[in-house]
Specification:
Elements: E1 2-10, H1 14-22, H2 24-30, E2 35-37, E3 41-47, E4 50-60, E5 64-71, E6 80-88, E7 91-101, H3 106-128
Antiparallel strand pairs: 1-7, 2-3, 3-4, 4-5, 5-6, 6-7
Helix pairs in contact: 1-2
Length: 139
């Protein structure tokens, strides 16, 4: 299986980082404007009758959130994403994992790249107040 793991420091509090990863406003500002966030489910609308639906399977206030992808392209279905926030001397350390991916495919390569772009957007949102959500993350 192909898993993605990233670690990055973000000059922000764990509370602000957790807010960006769990609130409708934060997710819309970093991932895609057509975002719906509920306590147990996230939906990201990409248009063309396509959306990703992620069920929240674990959450610890200001420390971590994990989700299970239930609706998306076949390569995403059944994958899990986990964001763990640790204290860092200049803000927060984010440990990101996207696990249970299928064997290496072109979609895995694209997914890895997309996560890097969304994590960049997350850092920008937390540090400057403005993220680069889809489709603007390639600017």
């Amino acid at each position: 299986m192909n898993n993605i793991q990233r670690r990055l420091t973000i000059s922000t509090s764990s509370q602000k980082l957790f807010w960006a990863l769990t609130s409708q406003v934060g997710l819309a500002a970093l991932w895609i404007p057509a975002t719906w966030a509920e306590e147990t489910k996230l939906i990201f609308g990409f248009g063309f009758d396509y959306h990703k639906a992620i069920a929240i399977i674990a959450s610890s206030q200001d420390r971590s959130v994990a989700g299970l992808c239930g609706n998306a392209t076949p390569e995403w279905i059944g994958t899990t994403s986990r964001f763990t926030i640790e204290l860092y001397e200049k803000g927060s350390l984010l440990v990101f994992e996207h696990n249970n991916g299928q064997d290496y495919t072109a979609v895995f390569s694209q997914r890895s790249y997309d996560w890097a772009m969304f994590l960049r957007s997350l850092r920008l949102l937390c540090e400057t107040g403005k993220g680069l959500p889809f489709p603007h993350q390639h600017q």
